[in-house]
Amino acid sequence: MEQPLDVPELAAGGGFMLREWRLSDLPLVREASEDDYIPLITTVPSPYTESAGVAFVERQWGRATTRAGYTFVIATSAGRPVGQVGLWLDNLAQGRASLGYWVVKAARGQGAAVTAVNAVVAWALRDLRIPRLELWVEPWNTASVRTAERAGFHREGLLRGWQRVGDERRDMFMYALLNDEL
């Protein structure tokens, strides 16, 4: 059996750091569960219960255990958790990994998402030597479009009906960043 992934702590700059999930992060899961969008595109439970929150945190740990990917809490330098960023390794055999991220409403507009994405990108390309990173963003989500582009991703096209979000299939912009573009 392969060893589980070791989720490192990453300095993200800008007053943010990335770390592994803890049960003490349940208030973050609760806050995210109250968002109109986050539970639609993630496995954040809605409605929130403590047992569902614990199960969510345990799923994050399980991603490293099964080698599916790295999932980080985005936290302020004071330790307050404000979001999540993940590096998913489903297509690593083909030289690709994907990123996903969210930040709770109270912490948006403070640079947490782009700072966290930049830290994961630098680590994934430099240390893990992943040839290609990908992410998908709904065209209406201008904040995530800005985050992707500020982190150096290039829009490659529109994938029509690409992903199920809630009860419908939605279009997604495809963004990518190649290792030699860092």
UniProtKB/TrEMBL annotation:
Instruction: Give the enzyme's EC designation.
Output: 2.-.-.-
Keywords associated with the record: Transferase
Please state every residue range assigned to the domain named N-acetyltransferase. 16-179
Q: Which domain of life is it from?
A: Bacteria
Q: Which organism is it from?
A: Streptomyces sp. 900105755
Q: Which Gene3D superfamilies match?
A: 3.40.630.30
Q: What is this protein called?
A: GNAT family protein
A single MF term (Gene Ontology): transferase activity
Pfam families (UniProt xref): Acetyltransf_3
InterPro entries xrefs: Acyl_CoA_acyltransferase, GNAT_dom, Ribosomal_N-acetyltransferase
